[in-house]
Amino acid sequence: MRGNWYKKCMPRIKDAIPLVNSIAQNLQNVEGVKKIYAWGSFVKFNKDKNYRIKDIDILVKTDFLSEDLVSIDSSAIKIASAEELVDEGFDPLTVNFSKKIASLYPIIDSWAISKDNKLLHWGPIFANKNESDCLKKDAEKFAESRTGIEVKKLKTSSNNKINNWYGFFHSYYSNQISDMPSGWYRSEEDNVKSIMKEVMEIK
To answer: What are the structural domain ranges in the chain?
Structure first.
């Protein structure tokens, strides 16, 4: 139900707040999770509760090493037995965390900061967040060209027009990364201190 709600309409900040809080509650007791943050447009436009966001970014600070995270893909999280995971060279706690994160994709953009201070993303991304943001800008321009609606006018548009706009946006973005397998991707972004200035802790 949550997935259908998100896919049908770009949520307003006030609509997304219960979802973000629910995700934080579900993740906070997962072993290896230290802190949970919101990031991106949800934080940037948080004061405007009617602002419509294209994506919801969650950032989790973890006790897991980046090399353990990047070894995990969609096939690893399907292994049910902890013994089998160990036999295959996986850390069961890292896999359990990844399984929780994978259940949110693609509704939520899930990011992690590893124990060795690396930024990772579940699902395909470009080398760094700037490149990812550039792709989103291109997707926005594509949606604008197809619908005639600028991003700044979405706030006052009808749900049908918003759904149509987002459909073009999502289609363009997805087509650019469709050949990349799911799993953890490590970003080239290494300024974790700078990232932490852009987040909001969710308790």
So the answer is: 2-124+181-201, 132-179
Q: What is the 3-state secondary structure (H, E, C) of 77-96?
A: HHCCCHHHHHHCCCCHHHHH
Question: In what order do the strands lie in the sheet containing 119-122?
Answer: 184-186, 119-122, 109-113, 57-62, 33-39, 200-201
Asked whether residue 21 carries a pLDDT value surpassing 90, the answer given is: yes
CA 33 to chain centre: 16
- Residue 180 CA to residue 130 CA, distance in Å, equals 19
Chain position carrying tokens 């007791």: 29
What DSSP string describes 35-63?
Answer: EEEEETHHHHTTT-TT-B-S--EEEEEES
Residues 6+ away with beta carbon under 8 Å from 110: 57, 58, 60, 101, 104, 121, 122, 123
**Residue whose structure tokens are 């459909």:** 167
Tokens matching residue 125: 């991304």
pLDDT tens per residue across span 157-175? 888 899 899 889 988 888 8
Work out the percent of the chain whose per-residue pLDDT is above 70.
93
Helix (H) or strand (E) run with residue 134 in it: helix 129-147
| DSSP annotation of 75 | T
Return phi, psi of residue 130, to 5°.
-60, -40
Residue reference for tokens 């399984």: 99
